[in-house]
Amino acid sequence: MPVFTDQMNREVFVPGPPLRIVSLVPSQTELLHTLGLAGRVVGVTRFCVHPEDWRGTRQRVGGTKNINIETLLSLHPDLVIANKEENTREQVEAIARQVPVWISDVHDLDSALAMMQGIGEITGRQAEAARLTTRIGSDFEALARTTQGRRAPDTAYLIWKDPYMTAGGDTFISDILTRSGFNNIFGAAKRYPVADIDTLRCEVLMLSSEPYPFKERHREALQRLKPHTRVMLVNGELFSWYGSRLLHTAAYVRQLFDSCTPG
Fold first, then answer.
1. How many whole angstroms separate alpha carbon 212 and alpha carbon 52?
2. Cα(56)–Cα(163) distance, rounded to whole angstroms?
3. What is the per-residue pLDDT for 55?
4. Closest Cα partner for 63 from 76, 79, 82, 44?
5. Which domain holds residue 59?
6. Residue 131 in domain
7. pLDDT score of 56 more than 90
């Protein structure tokens, strides 16, 4: 029986190429589509919004942190794709007692590319995953060349409101910020700390579209409060989705950086 090692260093045993896959992570669901596995994915979460046509054609098994295990098992999956942070440990362990589960642990671009290669391997899509990671890697190498030598503006990235929360230095978002040429002022913090808006001092304040859906009215209110800060709405998927959506990230963040640091 083939044995694969996931990003938690767990051995995952699968009897053969998985034909009935359930994905518990939105960005990895989109990755499975990109790898050409549409015919094998039978279940997704209600947050798996890409590709759009899967929302009505694949069984939903709950949210990322409240999986309906009974519904999941009724699909008779031969592989479940999960993530250390986005899914709960107790539920993943319960599922893994009955179904092979491959768990990712993504905290920066390098681990995201490794995740894609790992999923490509366990699903028999190694060649497709190799092409995908090569292209994404090349895009970010080109991005690094464009930002090299240019001053990194002090930046905060808000993911939540009431209380305001931001991305710390050990997050995937922070790695993308750094690679984009921005200096995360919360780089020394862990995970998602609370930010005091009254005392916050930065040149650029990014308001993410997810998980909290910041809108123009929020931007305008914060811009009035911080008249000397560039307050901007940003596409959260392109900063936090670590699957094949990264195909679009480098070009997007380059435009953001250029708009904040002309010349």
1. 20
2. 34
3. 81
4. 44
5. 3-105
6. no
7. no
User: Is the Cβ–Cβ distance between 45 and 151 less than 8 Å?
Assistant: no
Tell me the C-alpha distance between 72 and 76, whole Å. Answer: 7
CATH number at residue 220: 3.40.50.1980
Give per-residue pLDDT as tens, 203-239.
999 999 999 999 999 999 999 999 999 999 999 999 9
- Of the pLDDT bands very low, low, confident and very high (cuts 50, 70, 90), residue 15 is confident
- The encoded tokens of residue 244 equal 């094949």
In the chain, the number of structural domains is 2
* Rg from Cα positions in the chain: 19
Phi and psi of 34, rounded to 5°? -65, -35
d(CA 110, CA 137): 9
Report the pLDDT value the prediction gives residue 261, as an integer from 0 to 100.
83
pLDDT of residue 127: 98
Residues 161 and 239 in one domain: yes
In this structure, what token pair is assigned to residue 113?
């590319």
d(CA 217, CA 214): 8
Question: What is the pTM (predicted TM-score) of this model?
Answer: 0.95
Last residue of a domain, one of 83, 105, 127: 105
Looking at residues 35-48, what average pLDDT do you find?
Answer: 97
Q: Which pair of tokens denotes residue 7?
A: 């990003």
Q: How far is CA 93 from the centre of its chain?
A: 22
